[in-house]
């Protein structure tokens, strides 16, 4: 009987040793599986590092573009300065010609005075000695003097006509140039504008004076115009400044203005000439570059924050909070592909700043949904008028069946990809028409890259934690 009990205990020990051996084998398999997952996570981190390098290269490219634009602006300013130098040279030539004419006028007047004196002396001599001979001689002499005077007048007229031709050329340059030209008197009162000014601002001279006044202090929107005018008058040299103005139609324009004093022969200021060069497009380019640089910086910061986070809900909250800085994101949706159900499961949705609790999914067999179209075709969608543009993607659509209650007017859908494999869809929606542009779509596409990495990291982390919990149950 004792032997039977010993045999029974031995069999029981053998059975338990066999069970223990099987559990040890299972534990070894789980440890190997965890090691494989750790390796996969390491690979994801390496991919994240590569993405960071790509972002850095993109920043450097943007900085290079910004530098090139600045160089182009510098060249444009140099060209403007060269034009101003040529115009100043022409103005100096006009002043010289005017000085020469004035000198010739004085010389002619002096000659006429001398002639008159000579005539008086001759008349006196002729009257005293030989009246008849003196009268004839006087007539002859007077005739000759008039011929000389007429010859001088003809020469002076030719010189004046030549100067007038030069002035006409300058007038044509001032009238036909693409730059706005404004001429003020020495009291800074507006006297004349060219055709380019009217094309630039939409105002005629009379309209502009009625609307803004006729004084340079009033017509300019430059905050420091008084100091600039004082500097120009004091130094008698040109000054430059940037000007922001509003056209007659209400459009905002930008100009680089060169204010130049015109001096008389005594060196006193007799006119002020303001030349406005339209730099509106350059200003817009600068603003766009600055905005692009700011967006890249902000997107990089958002990318760092969400890829460092391992909670799907916190990742989505971070994205939604920052997305409204770029665009109207009244509705924000993230859907993840569920391969077992063949659906796109909405894992996060916010409408009107409120989180939607009752989440839903899109059946990938339902081709009436934009999310399904985006996923199946791996294609970005940008719509600014749902009623007219929806049919470009889904013909014969039923708006009520597709959206149910509140229907947005503008939508963006973008696929979420990792290693060229689509695993979800991102969407922003607005109840206003024309809410989005290609720039907004580019922002969404950039965010989609970060979101894809962050969601995969979070999902991988969640799976590892679940495996750890399972392993912990064996001990």
H/E element order: HHEEHHHHEEEHHEEEEHEHHEEH
Strand content: 15-25%
As a percent range, the share of helical residues equals 55-70%
Question: Structural class of the helix and strand makeup?
Answer: alpha+beta
Distance between the termini: 37 Å
- Seen as an oligomer or otherwise, the chain set is single chain
**Shape annotation:** rod-shaped
Counting DSSP E segments of at least 2 residues, the number of strands comes to 12
Helix count? 12
Question: Segments where pLDDT lies below 50 for 5+ residues?
Answer: 163-170
Mean pLDDT: 79
Key traits:
single chain, 475 residues, alpha+beta, seven-stranded antiparallel sheet, five-stranded antiparallel sheet, 12 helices
Question: Could you describe the 3D structure shown?
Answer:
The protein is of the alpha+beta class and 475 residues long. It contains twelve helices and twelve strands. It has helices at residues 2-128, 131-176, 195-201, 205-212, 216-219, 225-235, 280-307, 312-323, 370-377, 386-389, 399-403, 438-472; strands spanning 180-185, 190-193, 239-246, 252-263, 269-278, 331-338, 343-351, 354-355, 361-363, 381-383, 410-418, 421-430. The strands form two sheets. Strands 6, 7, 8, 9, 10, 11 and 12 form a seven-stranded antiparallel β-sheet that branches. The chain is rod-shaped. The protein starts with a helix and ends with a helix.
